[in-house]
């Protein structure tokens, strides 16, 4: 499913790009879509399409920031009004340790946790709802949410934009095959890094006091 969505987004152009990228970013934060497709993937793809002049990079960045802020606030409102059912939902039950860690971070750091959580895929998907469940004041949430959405939205849009330009230059110099090989190496590197990070988190969880047999 992930690769199908990526291929579909990469084939879009014009106003549809704005709508699809904004929708994916919004749903990631408001409806836990981040468990399926991390929002930065859609944003980076959108930035790459902007490098191909299919959309405006300025307008795309603005749309992404607005979608990120609005999606987070929707997730916050859902958490604030739904309360306990959010914590007992199936997606969160499967990641209980990480959810508890996120709630502890909110208790200790408040709005800073909202800002920092924007840059970690799992936390980005759940932090708004957890902030609502924790009864964080709306004005505090909005301040840090807007700051995080601005930095994240502009940053990942430009990342995709410059990556798209770099790909075009590489393709011109090395040919299409060389460019595809280099792109594949980069993708494999990212996948390996994410896998190692996932395995490390798993080991850390097992090594916590009280989790062993003794």
UniProtKB/TrEMBL annotation:
InterPro entries in the cross-refs: DedA-like (IPR032818), VTT_dom (IPR032816)
Tree of life domain: Bacteria
Domain VTT: from-to ranges: 37-161
Record field: transmembrane: 6-26, 31-51, 57-76, 112-135, 141-161, 173-193
UniProt subcellular location: Cell membrane
Keywords linked to the UniProt accession: Cell membrane, Membrane, Transmembrane, Transmembrane helix
Membrane topology category: Multi-pass membrane protein
Segment forming the signal sequence: none
One term under GO cellular component: plasma membrane
Primary location: membrane
Protein family (similarity comment): Belongs to the DedA family.
Protein name (record): DedA family protein
């Amino acid at each position: 499913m992930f690769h199908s969505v990526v291929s579909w987004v990469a084939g879009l152009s014009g106003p549809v790009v704005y709508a699809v990228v904004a929708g994916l970013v919004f749903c990631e934060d408001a409806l836990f879509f981040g468990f399926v497709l991390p929002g930065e993937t859609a944003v980076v793809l959108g930035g790459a399409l902007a490098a191909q002049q299919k959309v405006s990079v300025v307008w795309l960045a603005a749309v992404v920031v607005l979608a990120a802020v609005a999606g987070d606030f929707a997730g916050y409102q859902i958490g604030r009004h739904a309360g306990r059912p959010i914590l007992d939902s199936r997606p969160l039950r499967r990641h209980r340790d990480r959810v508890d860690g996120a709630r502890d971070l909110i208790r200790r750091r408040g709005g800073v946790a909202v800002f920092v959580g924007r840059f970690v895929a799992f936390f980005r998907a759940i932090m708004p709802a957890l902030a609502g469940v924790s009864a964080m004041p709306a004005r505090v949430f909005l301040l840090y949410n807007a700051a995080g959405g601005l930095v994240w939205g502009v940053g990942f849009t430009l990342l995709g934009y410059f990556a798209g330009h770099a790909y075009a230059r590489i393709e011109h110099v090395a040919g299409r095959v060389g460019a595809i090989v280099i792109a594949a190496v980069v993708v494999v590197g990212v996948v390996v890094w994410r896998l190692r990070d996932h395995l490390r988190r798993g080991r850390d969880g097992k090594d916590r006091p009280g989790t062993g047999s003794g």
